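Researcher: Please predict.
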Amino acid sequence: MATTTPSRRGVPDRAAKARSGAGAGARTGARARGLARAGRGRGGAGPRKDRLSVQNLPGWMFSTPFLALFLTFMAVPIVATFVMSFTDFGLPNVADPFSAEFTGLQNYTRLFGDERFLTALFNTFYFVVVGVPLTVGAGLFAAVLLNRGVGRLRTFFRVGFYAPVVTSIVAVAVVWRFVLDPADGLISGLAAEVGLHSPDFLGSKLLAMPSLIVMAVWRNLGTAMVLFLAGLQGIPTEVREAARLDGASVWQEFRRITVPLLRPTMLYVSVMTTIGFLNVFEEPFVMTEGGPDNATLTVSLDMYEQGFKFFHMGYASAMAYVLFTVILAVTLLQLRLLKDKTR
């Protein structure tokens, strides 16, 4: 009886299948081990978070005093002022704040029919439109002179220009009152020496606001100068030397190199100076008390008088948020106009 011999081609086929099965089993085992390790990793996320929390604890402990002060004296009053701007909150409601009546947008609509507030708003814009360019320009001019034209006494002049910034506004007001006094002031004395009559700077509706602007520019000049000095010293000297080798004049170097490279600093100085001038309060409060005939009345001064002199707290709160909106809009406009130029 004849016997059949197994085919030789079947043996390699069965071996290949056995090897593929073993490889699949190995891959399955590796995948299972990977999932097990991932499971252990997820299981260890809790201790890791606990370690991070313990590491962050000293930072939170050091931040707690600031956060407590910020919430107590900043965040809570800001929210309370916003709520009060929609009420008729006044002196009778101090003992029981919840007795104030909700008036909706009445305070805001009343503002834009109030001639006193509109005068204060106009005076504030006048103060900003004239004072900010003068402060920025004078600060840049002083910075360029100190950076290039002054050698040995550079530190002395820096301190001299910056001294008014750190001087009390009361002391500054006393000095400027003496300078501008029409009877015994410094300017009237100098004018009398040459046979001229000194005007009443603070008593004239025409000259009162320009006098305050001059004082504000003198007082804030130092801050702009220091910032511009930092920006000028950050300009590479190689750029200036290359411009001189190309035959650029001093004016061309300033216009084509210094000003473009100073645009980020100029943007910062302009924004910060504008915000400060929109909040102007000390100068008219100490020097003129808003007079003569509301010629130097500003929004901040009017807000102070409405809130703490006439005790119209809700109305003053509405003024505060209108001023905040104006500051935000002007700041965003400045950033929009100068942002592309600083890139």
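Model: The CA atoms of residues 2 and 8 lie 18 Å apart.
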